[in-house]
Amino acid sequence: MLLEQLLSNTIFSKMQVIAGHNGLNRTVQTVNIMDAPDIIHFLRPGELLLTNGYFMKEKPAMLLELMRNMNQLKCAGLAVKTKRFKLDIPQEVLQEANRIQFPIIEISSVGHSLGEILQHSTSIILDNRNEELQYSLNIHKRFSTMIMHGNGIDEIMDALTQLLSSPILLFSSKLQVTAQSQHFKHSHMQSVITATEAVLSHISVIPAAVKLCLLDPAVRNYRYIELYPIFTYRHEGYLIAYQPQQAASSKYGLTLEQASNVIGIEMSKQYAVKERSRRYKNEFFSDLIDGFIGSEQEALHRGKKYGLRSPGTWLLLAARKDESFHLGPSITKNSTSLADERLISERDVQYELIKRQLSQLGETFVLFTKNDLFGVLLFIPETEWEEAVFLKQLAAMTEQLAAQSQLSISLGVGNPVSNVLDIGLSYSEAVKALQIGYQMKKTRFIQSYQAKDVSYLFRLIPYEELKHFYEETFRPFSSSEENEQKELLRTLNVYFDTQCQLVETSKQLFVHRNTVIYRLDKCEKLMGIKLKDPIESLRLRIAFAIEPLLKNP
């Protein structure tokens, strides 16, 4: 309870606050008695200290040090019977108490001993705490009953707004408004939302309830906010109440606390429902892709809820978060055995981010997961549809994901199919395209499937023959030091990747154009060839294309 609430009881009717009036809104949790100079070591935050000042009679200056230490410890205040031992409180102490807003209370006129005051005060605090607990239980029961009767978060927000008579906002962990009270329909309240977003964007996840003040001059009213974080198995966001001045009653915070708890429970329930629906969807597409659905009729019947109709044309995408070059079979490794909740939570976030970005492309799609890949079933419209335009949109989407959400993904694209049972074939093509992109050491790429790409031809040649060709091509560089050899080969590789453009090569290598020319001249001297010779150029390009296959046979 607040200190001013405790002092309003009859036992303190004859008390007098002699300094620190502005600190009466401090919270008092316990009361203690002191008659020893080392009492500071035994005090706790929120404690009101009762004393007759005996040990300070000879050294009144000790009171200043005690008060500062108590303020640093966030104690509630100091109540002194100065007349018991004729203690004179120095003016310096009173001035400092006013400055730091630390209450000093004169209780000489209170007709009770310190022990009696302690007993009565403790009883008052306990009664208040019992009342708060009962209030919390009632509020929690009220909100929980709403949930059990089928009401959702919006209804809880409405009830909370009526209880507190304050504007209420519900922010997601991405600082997006997911629910709000009627107050925010007024245009002038937009400045409140903007100011709140600005404050929270510079703060990491807030683990516990806090009180903040908005200093943005655009906010005229509702500067004071109480913020309660909402957690399920992860951080979901914040429940925020706005006030023109700080709430004097602790019931205000108790109501918000219980509302945030029940909202967290409702979010957990919604997540469980969504997770079950998502699991059914993933199981269906996994069965369809793996060939466990034997007839077109069964596939269309089970896929009806996902929009599968006949006739229709579909195209499959396989997406994956870029890491340190996952090659070959590793990208199809089953990741469902990962029990680490943090990784699961990150994957859920990636799912929502990809879904949101795909929605902005204006295409009809279904997003699902299979092992550690994200699958996308794209519905190709009957009207004109240009795959090249769509691929450019996908490339722009990956760049936007990287820039806005720091999520780097790559996508493999299968070929369109018109038979629902061929969806698995298109998905396999998308996965192969994704593998090819990673084999070429790419990241954040869009790779379309080609039935017989260059790497396919290379794999028809025995491994030893490929290795011999590679080693013979780059043997002249073996006489150089290891660092220089890597530098020259990297320059040569980028030079060919940029279609032999010196300026673009220098940009990608972050070196001067003359440096590139010097390195290329050195390559020509070491190999005894001209890089512009088409035969030699083709030989080098083939050797560079073979390199990933040698590292991952």
Question: How would you summarize what this structure contains?
Answer:
With 553 residues, this protein is α/β, with parallel strands linked by helices. Helix content is 47%, strand content 15%.
Mind explaining what this structure looks like?
With 553 residues, this protein is an alpha/beta fold. The chain folds into four domains: 3-126, 3-Layer(aba) Sandwich (Udp-n-acetylmuramoylalanyl-d-glutamate--2,6- Diaminopimelate Ligase, Chain: A, domain 1); 151-270, GAF domain (Beta-Lactamase), CATH 3.30.450.40; 290-451, 2-Layer Sandwich (Alpha-Beta Plaits); 456-551, Arc Repressor Mutant, subunit A. 47% of the residues lie in helices and 15% in strands. It is elongated and about 105 Å long.
Task: Please describe the structure with a list of short key phrases separated by commas or semicolons.
553 residues, alpha/beta, Udp-n-acetylmuramoylalanyl-d-glutamate--2,6- Diaminopimelate Ligase, Chain: A, domain 1, Beta-Lactamase, Alpha-Beta Plaits, 5-stranded mixed β-sheet, 5-stranded antiparallel β-sheet, 47% helix, 15% strand
* CATH class identity of the largest domain: Alpha Beta
* CATH topology term of the largest domain: Alpha-Beta Plaits
**Percentage of β-strand residues:** 5-15%
Question: How far do the termini sit from each other?
Answer: 71 Å
Overall body shape: elongated
Task: Report on the biggest sheet.
Answer: 5 strands, mixed
Stretches where pLDDT is under 50 for at least 5 consecutive residues are: 325-340
* CATH architectural arrangement of the largest domain: 2-Layer Sandwich
> How many H/I helical runs?
17
Q: Decide which structural class fits the backbone.
A: alpha/beta
Number of domains: 4
| Average predicted local confidence, pLDDT | 87
Can you list the strand order of the major beta sheet?
1-5-4-3-2
